[in-house]
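=== Given protein ===
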Amino acid sequence: MFYSEDIIEEVRSRNDIVDVINSFVSLQKHGSDYTACCPFHNEKTPSFHVNRDRQLYHCFGCHEAGTVYTFLQRYENYTFPEAVKYLADRAGMQLPEHEMTAEEKRLSDYNQTLKDINKEAATYFYYMLRQEQGSAAMEYLKNRGLSDETIHAFGLGYAVIGRNQLYQYLKSKGYEDSVMIDSGLVRFDEQYGPSDVFWNRVMFPIMDLQGKVIGFGGRVMGDGTPKYVNSKETRIYEKRRHLFGFQIARRSKREGFILCEGYMDVISMHQAGFDNATASLGTAFTIQQAMLLKRYTTKVYLAYDSDSAGVSAALKAIPILREVGISARVISMRPYKDPDEFIKAEGAEAFEQRIRDAESSIMFEVRVASEKYDQQDPESRTEFQKEIVRIVSVLKSPMERDNYIESIAGKYYMDRNNLTEEINRYGKYRTEREQYEEAVRTETPQEIRRREQSESRKKQPQRLLLTWLVNRPKELFPQLEGKITPKDFSDTFLQELAEKLYAQYAASGAVNPALLINQYEDLEQQTQAASILQTTMKYEPSPEDDAKTITEIVRKVKMESVKDQMEHLSDMSQLQKLMEIRKEIPKWNISLDSC
């Protein structure tokens, strides 16, 4: 954090979460909460809840949760300090210029050092491209049709042939070996010592939104493998959160963005006048990249390769874009492989026409499905129709769904009424959220099920106990003294959250969930903590039933803790004590007063 906890809490307390979120999303009063359709995924029935008392939000559909800071980080893609500054400005507060601890300043300075060393490397690559050693690389770029202006605009460079030329250069600039390793520019071998990660490759600097170099992609000039070598992830570079060329594309006056697969596609399109082109960074398109795009637009054109891999990538990107509320259309590259090849062959005007003719994501999915099935074979045609049902069922608007049904039925000679009936029936069985999760998952459904069941058995009682402690602190904390401690939470994250919760209650005799969540710098951890602390318990009709529920939870948490300690026991003298505790647990009873 760049500000003290007191400053962060003061800023938060001056910005009511309902008022802030209502300036972005239209909230409606619903009981003790305020509700809306979730801004983080598409839905028809509101499942996004904001609680004024706890100053937290939670979506029961996609499980996004957090404080007012978390919301701004998710919705506006702010960093935490940016969110603090936005809210301070909103409340008319003057933030202190320097409020960092020694550790925070060290980390901030180190991040800046990593940016500096990347900038130095980019300067070196840029310079070498224009030397005699870089003549082959320059010729390669010229043969790819790039102008001097374009090469300059994207800061393209060349990593020379040699084992550690960049290392020696950075060493001469005063950088330590540890920094070079952390930057991903240099690797070390016990036998051979330092060597450059990139050599004999055309270099593509990767920049953040402010135009600062945070990583590189290096392309081989011939037929060697691997075709691309990309920077490893570092403290300043996470591939899933950045897009190539986006520091330029976000300033484009063109409508929407054109999403490509490769660096050269983006560069060629910018040179042809399509300065709204961008690309993911050597990995599959991610939800974080979709949210970054959503910050600037609601429309994206997919210009992926026309081969099977490109089609597959487009099919996976579509539900992710749809999930954040972005309308996707697909540009056909046929008969060419990619945008770079298309523009070289047909020119910018022809590509403009392709943009105008771009297919909607639904019609693209249907067309791709039609090519997999033999339309003359009844069984195969039936399978095709089932796939159409699955595709169209994601549409929530009845009017939009009817329009697509009419178009598809006419194009593929189907009975419109039968198709409508099947789609309506299927819509009750499977949701758009399931399609999204299927597109981004890497595990098989069976593997996910087994893992989640295993994790749930241990974590669920622990999560529930924390939720109960937030809901009924004055009744539960005194009764759990001597029974449950934070160390009884086996999950690392839940144990840390329990420690914070116990410490807060010990200090003030109350709990403040929003203040606890502010202590997490990591956005994912904020969301995870909020999903636990935000939940409101639905109490049973009587205190006796509530007491039975919480008693069972407490017993399960302690029993699992004792079991885990016994399995990892190093001091056998503790065994007898643990056995005695295990014997007493079934006798424990927790009492609750009427609410």
In short: The chain has five domains: 5-90, 104-237, 246-364, 372-440, 449-587. The two ends are 38 Å apart (CA to CA).
